[in-house]
Amino acid sequence: MQIPVTAIILALVAALLVTPLVGKWAFKCGALDRPGQRKIHNRVMPRMGGVAIYISFVVAVLLTREITLPVAGFLAGGFLIVLLGIIDDTRGVSPWVKLAGQVVAAGAVIPFGIKVQFLTNPFSHDLLALGVLSIPVTVIWMVAVINAVNLVDGLDGLAGGTSCIAVLTLAAVIWIEILLNGGATQGQWDAITLALVLAAAILGFLRYNFHPAKIFLGDSGSMYLGYSVAVLAVMGLAKSATFISVIIPVVILGIPFLDTTLAIIRRYCGNRPIFQADQGHLHHRLIAMGFSHRRAVLCLYGVNIVLALSAVVMTLITPKQAVVFLVLLSTGVLVLVNKTGIVSAGGSGHTGYLARSEKQQRSS
């Protein structure tokens, strides 16, 4: 396989050029994020930055490569999820309508052959063919990833950087799987190419999204990035008959998945609606502990990189060793995260941070 250098450069340059234009468009169509109690920013910000990533990515793909069936499915579902995000960024939609739209976008890729076809046992070579269950399993997986990435979009550059690390790691893991298996499917080659091009588009966007941000991802961006990671994982790993191929995407997205799970537990134990936003996410807790905005993001980047390297290591060892490694890794992450008080977070620390920021703005 040849690295798609032309597509990568085109996606990067396009994102650098298109993102400011999308920002101006967001002001005109009312896709704005206004300051509020849960917000760290103190001025009106354009959102819908995901449109810039999507345009840059699609242009690079359409101009440089043949559109195979899996690629066509990836683009089709991506269009639907971005469209849903644009509506949410400009008009707002209820959580249940958003969930329904996510299910539709996830289901759109299945006719193109993108689906989880079986599950594996780490302690044997037995395979469990999913049959008709492959459809709901695929949809549930994709919706879970979409919402996990959506929930970590709370600091400048966090969701974009996390997704960039994730897709680059997926490309590396898929490449290793190809080498170990002595061959590849068309979907695996497509997944590597799309992952590299998408990473370039994200990097171009991060030029304007890293703190202090000039534009936000919006739901059009966070949902699209979650969708992309989910689909690329299925395209590249779901047909590999190993336990590792099933667990690797979860390890790569360890922080978003953990943050989402703890948010659900926290809200349930607090008798609050599951979809009700709060100030207890991991990035909120880091801010409450005194981390600066930039330092909190870089800290979470570091954890994501450690998890990414762990995913690569798990690809190179035996399934039984991988299970032991996963248990040790999970224990270490849980101990580290527990120090932030994320499970019992009530959000007062983050509110205090907001108050300090507003006071600093008034004094300056």
Using the alpha-carbon principal axes, give the shape.
globular
Question: Count the strands?
Answer: 4
Question: What is the count of DSSP helices, taking H or I runs of 4+ residues?
Answer: 14
- Strand-and-helix sequence, N→C? HEEHHHEEHHHHHHHHHH
Major beta sheet summary: 2 strands, antiparallel
Helix % is over 70%
Q: Tell me the strand order in the biggest sheet.
A: 1-2
Computed Rg:
20 Å
The average pLDDT value, as a whole number, equals 83
The span between the termini is 55 Å
Low-confidence stretches: 345-364
Q: How does the helix and strand content classify structurally?
A: mainly alpha
**Tally of distinct domains:** 1
The amount of beta strand, in percent, is under 5%
How is this fold's topology laid out?
Layout: H1 5-29, E1 32-33, E2 45-46, H2 50-64, H3 69-90, H4 95-108, E3 118-120, E4 127-129, H5 134-151, H6 158-181, H7 186-209, H8 218-237, H9 243-252, H10 254-269, H11 282-288, H12 293-316, H13 319-338, H14 348-363
Antiparallel strand pairs: 1-2, 3-4
Helix pairs in contact: 1-2, 1-7, 2-3, 2-7, 2-8, 3-4, 3-8, 4-5, 5-8, 5-10, 6-7, 6-8, 6-12, 7-8, 9-12, 11-14, 12-13
